[in-house]
């Protein structure tokens, strides 16, 4: 039986109906303007996030199966990610209003954003590997098109091709992992697969480890974990900056939802000392991302490498999850924070591209005087990404590093995760500070005040309120993240 009033089904119906309707309206309309399609898409996203919030506030979100075969579940974990990804969708859509003005095929553009958002959301609610893979492809395929949206731009075409090729490879690896899991357990239901893994004999254990490894590699491509990150900087740089925001802040987080649903629980069920492997990946990922970012001179490319580094921070909480009770909670908190911080940074770049047509860091000298609101929004988001108090990024990083220290009584290497995190945060502050110095402390070719895109101003104002507001009063979001964690309980630990 299908529960049509359940959160994931309603979100799919709202976003799917409008996503299909927008191209139909485009065919019927005689006047071809981009604004109307953006407004329609925004309305659908606002309705969707409003429904999620209503379900949570009225306590209609319960860990219950939606289909009798239990392929989707309506729980707080899924709703947490749904809110994060819908916020990103809203920021991307609003930030695109001015960017898309005068560009071709706006109806297709906004429709694909909605369809990709459906995939992201369904990943978070999936409890079956086949359903998760279908949602994964529903998320990925529209973004392949969006990455190459600027058809006349060679770098955009290159971005789309690289993104598609590596995306296809990651999908193939995930399918391989699913086939192994099904062969070992006779089921694709995630819970049953986990139980099956925990009952395997020693002779079958290597295959189960291989399956988990395939999931790590497959999801790792989308997340940008080292060494699966090689496609990411080129894809983000060549994509429209608004779509780079969707990729870095949206699809990346959907990848973490899949990681939490599948890899973490599966690895715990195998009773492996897998935490050390994740810790190594976390340290390498954050270090490689930040070291590469500090050498960049293109703003978009620098933010792309920064996204790789941020994935490493999130992994800190996941790697100590069985030991530290706040590990996953801290990761969820940082996932939500990063969604807004990174989306704001890329939307600010979209505003700079729309107004000045540049992304080279040397070209943004004096931006604080020329585009003050955009510069302020970018500055606040960069400082939050670095973890500067009292912004929201400080609290989520503090929780992440605290969870690593807390796990030190059992895992002797865990405190080194906190040390690596602090050192990498200091390194990131160096290149973020370089950008801020260019905007405020170096003179540009002109100090003339420019007209900033209104849609970008709206996103910047929202971002500043969110980042500062959560920084000043983080408790509600921390509690919300905590409420999404219990689905991970009841599994054997690595003690």
UniProtKB/TrEMBL annotation:
One annotated GO molecular function is: NADH dehydrogenase (ubiquinone) activity
Q: Does the keyword Ribosomal protein apply?
A: no
**Keyword presence, Secreted:** no
- Give EC number(s), comma-separated: 1.6.5.3
Protein topology in the membrane: Multi-pass membrane protein
Q: Where is the NADH:quinone oxidoreductase/Mrp antiporter transmembrane domain?
A: 126-413
The entry's cellular-component GO terms read:
membrane
Q: Where in the cell is it found?
A: Membrane
The enzyme class is oxidoreductase
Chain segments annotated as transmembrane = 6-28, 35-57, 77-100, 107-125, 131-151, 163-184, 204-232, 244-268, 274-293, 313-337, 343-361, 373-393, 413-434, 455-473
What does the UniProt keyword field contain? Answer: Membrane, Oxidoreductase, Transmembrane, Transmembrane helix
Q: Which GO terms describe its biological process?
A: ATP synthesis coupled electron transport
One Pfam family this sequence matches: Proton_antipo_M
Could you name the domain of life of the organism this protein comes from? Archaea
NCBIfam families according to UniProt: NDH_I_N (TIGR01770)
Protein name per Swiss-Prot or TrEMBL:
NADH-quinone oxidoreductase subunit N
| Chain's gene name | nuoN
């Amino acid at each position: 039986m299908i529960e049509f009033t359940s959160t994931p089904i309603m979100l799919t119906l709202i976003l799917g109906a409008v996503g299909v309707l927008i191209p139909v309206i485009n065919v019927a309309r005689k006047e071809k303007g981009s604004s109307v399609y953006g407004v329609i898409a925004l309305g659908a996203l606002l309705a969707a996030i409003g429904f999620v919030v209503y379900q949570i506030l009225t306590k209609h979100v319960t860990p219950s199966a939606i289909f009798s075969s239990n392929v989707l579940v309506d729980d707080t974990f899924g709703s947490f990610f749904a809110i994060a990804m819908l916020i990103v969708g809203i920021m991307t859509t609003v930030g695109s209003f001015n960017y898309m003005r005068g560009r071709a095929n706006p109806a297709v553009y906004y429709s694909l954003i909605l369809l990709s958002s459906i995939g992201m959301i369904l990943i978070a609610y999936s409890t079956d590997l086949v359903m998760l893979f279908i949602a994964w492809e529903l998320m990925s395929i529209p973004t392949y098109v969006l990455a190459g949206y600027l058809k006349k731009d060679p770098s955009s075409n290159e971005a789309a091709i690289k993104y598609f090729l590596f995306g296809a490879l990651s999908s193939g690896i995930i399918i391989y992992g699913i086939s192994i899991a099904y062969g070992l357990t006779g089921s694709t239901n995630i819970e049953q697969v986990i139980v099956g893994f925990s009952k395997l004999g020693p002779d079958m254990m290597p295959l189960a480890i291989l399956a988990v490894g395939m999931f790590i590699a497959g999801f790792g491509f989308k997340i940008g974990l080292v060494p699966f990150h090689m496609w990411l900087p080129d894809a983000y740089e060549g994509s429209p900056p608004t779509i780079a925001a969707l990729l870095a802040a949206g699809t990346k987080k959907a990848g973490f939802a899949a990681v939490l649903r599948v890899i973490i629980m599966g690895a715990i069920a195998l009773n492996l000392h897998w935490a050390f492997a994740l810790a190594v990946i976390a340290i390498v990922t954050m270090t490689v991302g930040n070291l590469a970012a500090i050498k960049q001179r293109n703003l978009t490319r620098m933010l792309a490498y920064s996204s790789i580094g941020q994935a490493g921070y999130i992994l800190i909480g996941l790697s100590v999850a069985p030991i530290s009770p706040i590990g996953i909670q801290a990761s969820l908190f940082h996932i939500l924070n990063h969604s807004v911080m990174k989306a704001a940074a890329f939307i600010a770049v979209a505003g700079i591209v729309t107004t000045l047509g540049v992304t080279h860091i040397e070209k943004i000298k004096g931006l604080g005087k020329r585009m003050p609101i955009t510069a302020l929004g970018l500055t606040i988001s960069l400082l939050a990404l670095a973890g500067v108090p009292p912004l929201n990024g400080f609290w989520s990083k503090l929780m992440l590093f605290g969870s690593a220290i807390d796990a030190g009584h059992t895992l002797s290497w865990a405190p080194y995760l906190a040390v690596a995190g602090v050192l990498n945060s200091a390194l990131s502050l160096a290149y973020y500070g370089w950008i801020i110095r260019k905007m405020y402390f170096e003179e540009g070719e002109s100090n003339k005040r420019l007209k900033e895109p209104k849609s970008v101003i709206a996103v910047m104002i929202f971002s500043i309120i969110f980042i500062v507001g959560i920084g000043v009063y983080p408790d509600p979001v921390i509690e919300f993240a905590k409420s999404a964690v219990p689905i991970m309980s009841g599994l054997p630990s690595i003690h």
